[in-house]
Design brief:
The chain is of the alpha/beta class. It folds into three domains: 191 residues, no CATH class; 149 residues, 2-Layer Sandwich (Alpha-Beta Plaits), CATH 3.30.70.270; 255 residues, Alpha-Beta Barrel (TIM Barrel). The chain is 59% helix and 14% strand. The protein is built from 22 helices and 16 strands. Strand 8 and strand 9 form a beta hairpin. Helix 2 packs parallel to helix 4 and helix 4 packs antiparallel against helix 5. The longest helix has 63 residues.
């Protein structure tokens, strides 16, 4: 729902639109029948006026039209009709009452006809019209058509210009008008019923849309507030809850913010090719929920959690409880005959002792966790003032990174790499440095983690790649057309760009010379490789960019696990190289890595070579390339070009 739910649907707007549609339909219906209704009113009024004139004329001069009698009957019928029409216009008379009046008028007319033998026929239309007003259009239409047929039969057989014939002609015209009126009434009712049905359907649709929107909004809100894999609060929600918990707090009970990270767990699962990530995650979440008596639990990353808990116990008792909780969390998990070590790191900050600011409180708990990771502490670590000083420095540098990128304070240095077979320096590794205005030249270990935390690692990596393209062009033009440069790619850069293809698109746009650039990915990144990343790495290879596995030997991977990766180089980590003189096993490890790599068709680079003795040992096991301070420290571009001219000429 990437979704799914980025824009809020305004259900009130939809309901307003539905009302607008209903109004437009009503206007449409009115416009369709307005002319007909006006015609109906005119016809009915004309009919009534004409008939009243005829009735009055028959009473005043009875011999001029017909031979009426019983003026009292005519007056009675006229009075009843007038009363019924009046109340009908006011909607104060029911259809039943109207039919009773019409029946009474008919009886009066029939009585007059029975006792007198003749009666003006033109009084019938007004009675028919009265019936029309109080019966359904279908029945009224049938009545009028039947009357029309009977009148036509009378006219057909009556040839004399008698008062009766004249009266029948008047009746025929009147009934015709009544029939037209009934047709119009019927059409109007049909249109009205259709419009009402359509309006009812639209209202039902609007209600259904409203209900669906309400359900969708509930689901969207839940999706936006929870982590989909665990049902815990997501990062934004837990931060908001901690903010509410502290800012709107009325009680004085202290609050502990606990940050839990299972740093090595993902590496362990990948190294042993165990596809039980979800089961392990479910077990960890289950333990956390059981051990912490709070609903304020959030997930920040794969195995990174934060908990806000009220301290109902004393601080000493609470800390002892945390130690017990840590022991429970540290217990290995048994899943599908696999024993999975968890090795959690726990950092804790207290409100209000550590800080009263909720943002700092979260940072302090994470700083305590980082302290646990850096010092490999197996147990809860509580934030203290020294960490605060270190954190202040961290925050200071972190906030300056975006400005430093804009102001070109980051510089690319190059450490030469020698080919032991040709004795020529044919490669170099690009290493970024921060030329800080106040603190001088800062090493990557100082600011790269900060760039990752602040999510500036992508901009920093792409800045490096752009600079390498520029410098590589100059080196190939002035020094060596086949020179190669390798670039370090952070696992976090890969994780945040390969999935959405930003890295692929960026590298296509850069358009490096074929096989002249090497991207170095760490063993950590390989351990978390999935099918999507593997496909992306193959795409990078297809762009003519070579791939090196950096820092090999520091993780849990094996060469057999790497056989599916499209890599060209293995770089043995300097922590192994540095010990080859004192630890015999290290040189054996280097030899094994080299032999297996050569069998797989990969070249091997030894990092961190610092003296001649190390070099000699590495030569004996047929290492391909050497990189280290034995030959050169990382150099700026101009010094690198000078170094290459001097060394390669001598070689």
């Amino acid at each position: 729902m990437s979704l799914i739910f980025k824009k809020t649907i305004n259900q009130e707007k939809i309901l307003e639109d539905s009302d607008l549609v209903l109004k437009e339909l009503s206007l449409f219906n009115q416009s369709q029948v307005q002319i007909r209704l006006q015609a109906l009113q005119i016809l009915n009024l004309t009919t009534i006026v004409l008939l009243l004139v005829l009735i009055l004329g028959s009473l005043i001069a009875p011999n001029s039209i017909a031979a009426p009698s019983l003026p009292a009957a005519s007056i009675s019928i006229l009075a009843l009709i007038s009363i019924s029409l009046y109340f009908h216009s006011k909607k104060n008379i029911s259809a039943k009452d109207g039919l009773i009046i019409a029946t009474l008028c008919t009886l009066i007319y029939a009585s007059a006809l029975w006792f007198n033998g003749v009666y003006p026929v033109y009084l019938l239309p007004i009675i028919v019209l009265l019936v029309t007003l109080f019966t359904s259009p279908n029945k009224s239409l049938i009545l009028n058509i039947t009357t029309l047929i009977l009148v036509c039969i009378v006219l057909f057989y009556e040839n004399s210009e008698t008062p009766l014939k004249i009266s029948i002609r008047i009746l025929l015209g009147s009934i015709f008008l009544v029939i037209v009126s009934n047709v119009i009434i019927r059409e109007n009712r049909h249109l009205s019923e259709s419009a009402e049905k359509l309006a009812s359907d639209l209202k039902e649709l609007a209600r259904e849309i409203s209900n669906n929107l309400n359900r969708a909004n509930v689901e969207k809100d839940k999706a936006l507030r929870t982590d989909q894999s665990t049902g815990l609060m997501n990062e934004k929600t837990i931060y908001d809850e901690i903010k509410k918990l502290i800012i709107h707090r009325k009680m004085t009970t202290p609050i502990a913010i606990i940050n839990l990270q299972f740093l090595k767990l993902n590496e362990h699962l990948a190294a042993h090719q165990i596809n039980i990530h979800d089961a392990v995650l479910d077990e960890i979440v289950s333990r956390i929920k059981k051990l912490f008596n709070t609903n304020n639990i959030g997930r920040l990353g794969k195995f990174d959690f934060i908990i806000a808990a009220e301290m109902s116990l004393s601080e000493a008792e609470f800390k002892n409880n945390l130690k017990t909780i840590y022991s429970e969390l540290n217990r290995s998990i048994h899943i599908t005959q696999n024993l999975i070590p968890l090795l959690p790191h726990m950092g804790i900050a207290f409100w209000p002792d550590s800080t009263i600011n909720y943002r700092n409180l979260i940072r302090y708990s994470q700083a305590a966790t980082l302290n646990s990771i850096e010092n490999k502490i197996a147990g809860p670590v509580f934030f203290d003032q020294q960490m605060e000083l270190n954190l202040a420095q961290t925050i200071y540098l972190t906030e300056q990174i975006p400005t430093a990128i804009v102001n070109n304070q980051f510089k690319v240095f190059y450490q030469p790499i020698i080919d032991l077979k040709t004795k020529r320096f044919i490669k170099a590794e690009a290493l970024i440095r921060w030329d800080h205005p106040q603190k001088g030249l800062l090493q990557p270990s100082t600011f790269i983690p900060l760039a990752i935390i602040s999510r500036n690692i992508i901009d920093l990596t792409e800045l490096t790649i752009n600079q390498v393209k520029h410098d590589l062009f100059l080196i190939q033009k002035e020094i060596d057309g086949d020179f190669q440069i390798s670039i370090n790619l952070s696992p976090h850069y890969l994780e945040n760009t390969l999935d959405n293809r930003n890295a692929i698109d960026f590298l296509k746009k850069i358009n490096f010379p074929k096989n002249k650039v090497i991207l170095e990915i760490t063993e950590e990144a390989v351990l978390s490789t999935d099918l999507n990343m593997l496909q992306s790495l193959n795409e990078i290879r297809n762009l003519g960019i070579e791939i090196a596995l950096d820092d090999f030997g520091t993780g849990y991977s094996s060469l057999s696990n790497l056989s599916v990766l499209p890599i060209n180089y293995i770089k043995i980590d300097q922590s192994i190289v540095n010990g080859i003189e004192q630890i015999p096993m290290n040189i054996k490890i280097c030899k094994l890595i080299t032999e297996l790599s050569h069998d797989a068709g990969w070249k091997v680079v030894a990092e961190g070579v610092e003296n001649q003795n190390q070099l000699n040992l590495l030569k004996d096991i047929n290492i391909d390339f050497i990189q280290g301070y034995l030959y050169s420290k990382p150099l700026p571009l101009d010094e690198l070009k000078k170094f290459l001219r001097e060394q390669n000429t001598a070689a």
